[in-house]
Amino acid sequence: MNSVVIHKNTIKRYLFLCLALIVMAFGVAMSIKANLGTSPISSFPFVLSLLTPLSVGKATILLHCTLIALQILILRRRYRPVQLIQLPVAFLFGYLTDFAVWALQGVSYTAYWQQWLLCIAGIFLVAAGVSLEVTADAVTLAGEGFVLAVCQVLPIKFGNMKVAFDVTLVAVSCLLSVLFTAKLQGVREGTVAAAVFVGLLARQFNKPLHTWFQKHLA
């Protein structure tokens, strides 16, 4: 009986994770559509999509697969095979991102303030998606998984390593964009806003979402 309950709970958590991925994918797509800069984790896939035939979603899959491989190299025997669930999650998130970009292709704007509305909506959705992911507690996405892996082998706090990871992605994105397109793309004022507010908003969403999940789905 207990095993059946645990099985149902696991299914609910992964369904909740799928909802989180959908919400985040549309948040990323809105940020791209706003053209004010994407969130730090999405900046590299976006710039890569400008330089190669890859779509943003497929570039996202490539980044996540690379981060999964790096986790294995860093942790070696300490790497838990269950974390390989990150792989199908990466593919799902990548394809959902491409779908969201396609779904929003008809959205247009004529003013800077309208771009900001899209950007703010994107930040809100990414934050909500992150909170849903945390509430689901099913699997760590590749970005956070990489940061956690580094923290296991080096005396670095998660928060500090997360900031360093985001800054590195943004810096590499800026460098590639300037070198190969002769202008800065994918990193703008919206990137700074996302870096500041996604985490703050996600923390605000965490408690009510966790309470609702425990009451209705746990």
TrEMBL record:
Assigned keywords, A-Z: Membrane, Transmembrane, Transmembrane helix
Segments passing through the bilayer: 55-75, 87-107, 113-132
Highest taxon, organism lineage: Bacteria
InterPro entries: YczE/YyaS-like
Protein's UniProt name: DUF6198 family protein
